[in-house]
Amino acid sequence: MLDVYETTYETCGQYWPHIHHHVVVAIIIMQITMIGLFGLKSKPAASIATILLLVVTVAYNEYCKIRFLPTFYTCSVQDAKDSDELDKDGESDLYREREIEAYRPPYLPRTCDTLEESTSTQPLLLATS
């Protein structure tokens, strides 16, 4: 294959808070520009609606900071993987079978009785050491 290279580093999603911040700042700048443009064009209804949209955007950004930002500083992907492996043989297997059965449409026959045959139950990250 051409133009394929092996990554030498893994950021584990640590750039997402920065990317989200820059996108929200760009949206806020665009909305402030539109408020000024609507003001120059003598469109007070559009200007007021854009001010309300600006408030909603800032509120959404604060909600995302409260809800998602602590995840990036408290739990790395490796910790989540280790926690998932610890829970692999616990009581979650019983719940997983119940969930699979609960969401299976009644008109579809059961195709496999064990979870080991499915690749969807394999861990996403493999141990490299």
Automatic annotation (TrEMBL):
<feature type="transmembrane region" description="Helical">
    <location>
        <begin position="45"/>
        <end position="63"/>
    </location>
</feature>
<keyword id="KW-0812">Transmembrane</keyword>
<dbReference type="Pfam" id="PF02714">
    <property type="entry name" value="RSN1_7TM"/>
</dbReference>
<feature type="transmembrane region" description="Helical">
    <location>
        <begin position="19"/>
        <end position="38"/>
    </location>
</feature>
<protein>
    <recommendedName>
        <fullName>CSC1/OSCA1-like 7TM region domain-containing protein</fullName>
    </recommendedName>
</protein>
<dbReference type="GO" id="GO:0005886">
    <property type="term" value="C:plasma membrane"/>
</dbReference>
<dbReference type="InterPro" id="IPR003864">
    <property type="entry name" value="CSC1/OSCA1-like_7TM"/>
</dbReference>
<keyword id="KW-0472">Membrane</keyword>
<dbReference type="InterPro" id="IPR045122">
    <property type="entry name" value="Csc1-like"/>
</dbReference>
<feature type="region of interest" description="Disordered">
    <location>
        <begin position="110"/>
        <end position="129"/>
    </location>
</feature>
<feature type="compositionally biased region" description="Polar residues">
    <location>
        <begin position="117"/>
        <end position="129"/>
    </location>
</feature>
<feature type="domain" description="CSC1/OSCA1-like 7TM region">
    <location>
        <begin position="1"/>
        <end position="38"/>
    </location>
</feature>
<keyword id="KW-1133">Transmembrane helix</keyword>
<dbReference type="GO" id="GO:0005227">
    <property type="term" value="F:calcium-activated cation channel activity"/>
</dbReference>
